[in-house]
Amino acid sequence: MTPRFQRLAMHLHSLGPRALAEFIHEASNRNGIEDQVLERLEVYYRLNSDALEALGGDRFPILPLRRVP
Q1: Which residues 6+ apart lie within 8 Å of 1 measured at CB?
Q2: Which of 22, 57, 63, 67 could form a disulfide with 52 if both were Cys (CB 3.0 to 4.6 A apart)?
Q3: 10-35 average pLDDT score
């Protein structure tokens, strides 16, 4: 995930649930993958926000991860 992607995702998130839902709906509809996106949303729906926060999964890493040869 690039820093640009993270920045744009953070901005979209800051716009609230409606903007995020509209984006997900538009992107999945345009690409014909509504069913697959809905399945993934169901998986994410089962996540526990407290556990996610405790594990650091609620924020981006400080530096982008890079592959070391």
Answers
A1: 60, 64
A2: 57
A3: 97
